[in-house]
Amino acid sequence: xxxxxxxxxxxxxxxxxxxxxxxxxxxxxxxxxxxxxxxxxxxxxxxxxxxxxxxxxxxxxxxxxxxxxxxxxxxxxxxxxxxxxxxxxxxxxxxxxxxxxxxxxxxxxxxxxxxxxxxxxxxxxxxxxxxxxxxxxxxxxxxxxxxxxxxxxxxxxxxxxxxxxxxxxxxxxxxxxxxxxxxxxxxxxxxxxxxxxxxxxxxxxxxxxxxxxxxxxxxxxxxxxxxxxxxxxxxxxxxxxxxxxxxxxxxxxxxxxxxxxxxxxxxxxxxxxxxxxxxxxxxxxxxxxxxx
Amino acid sequence: xxxxxxxxxxxxxxxxxxxxxxxxxxxxxxxxxxxxxxxxxxxxxxxxxxxxxxxxxxxxxxxxxxxxxxxxxxxxxxxxxxxxxxxxxxxxxxxxxxxxxxxxxxxxxxxxxxxxxxxxxx
Lengths: 292, 122
Description:
The structure holds two protein chains of two kinds. By secondary structure, chain A is mainly alpha-helical. Helices cover 90% and strands 0% of the residues of chain A. Chain A is elongated, with a radius of gyration of 29 Å. The model of chain A is unreliable at 3-19 (pLDDT under 50). Chain B is rod-shaped. Chain B contains three helices and no strands. In chain B, helix 1 crosses helix 3. The model of chain B is unreliable at 1-7 (pLDDT under 50). Chain B is 92% helix and 0% strand. Chains A and B meet through helix 2, helix 3, helix 4 and helix 5 of A and helix 1, helix 2 and helix 3 of B.
């Protein structure tokens, strides 16, 4: 069998044995996984910050009614420290998942095909030169085909490796995502409850009390008072948005499962990535107003 | 005797149930109407007792929430060794791909050499 035929046959066999998903689709999945893991870390950090802010407002409110003692402060502060410690643990575990998706992405975007193509090009150039010298013209005709098929074979090899890896690790990753979905639902409840406390106490402290003073709010402070009130009243809406977004984030588990069973394609992953990008932008934009 | 999975699930469910009830009550403890009422209370003993009870109540809620998250962290921690193994395996696969290129590189060196040798003799 001549070189041309055997390369084409090898490529066909490689394509048939490596499954239906292209390298590109695995790259998209890895990208979605990466973005998801990033967003989970963001949510975890935000939850910790909001918790501390809520506790601070409660300490001030309590102190306003009756002077607090050292024991009061220590007992409350210890709760915050315990919370931050467990959030830190959750972030660490999440980073392992992120490392996994980063590796998948590295595999999917491996420069090996391009590097391999370069090597194949060099080899075929050399073979052509040798061929000219030995008058083996069949090698010259096969040069571009070898290079093209070589790259195709490497691409398909990578897809095959990705498919095999993701199928093998599927139960483990799904388990992780399932547990995280439970965690995201819990966190979103905590965040909403803490934001309500912050909003109510801040409204009392920064909006109602200045307004109810016997002296009217000064001209210089009126605009600031209006802005403060605006931000505080918007807090509940923002925390509801955060809650909805957290639930959406948890849907990555279903997306991942559907991708592996062939039910979802690249467009669904694109939509998910867009949702995650919106979530991250929303948290970044609203975090200050939720915790300042 | 170790707790069965069913018992542990029951404990988690209980925590969730208690937490929900306590949070519902907490809304009444921390709303603006309550703050204003306390502000207007004249008896310092009543104020102090209320504040101390409120701190204890909030601390319990906080503990419950944290313990639910700790249980989640424990479940994730149990998966960590397997995830680390998966990462090690992925690294090997990446290395294998790189080795494919290394093999091609070696082949390239050989063909370079052959070409040069032939030049000498031509």
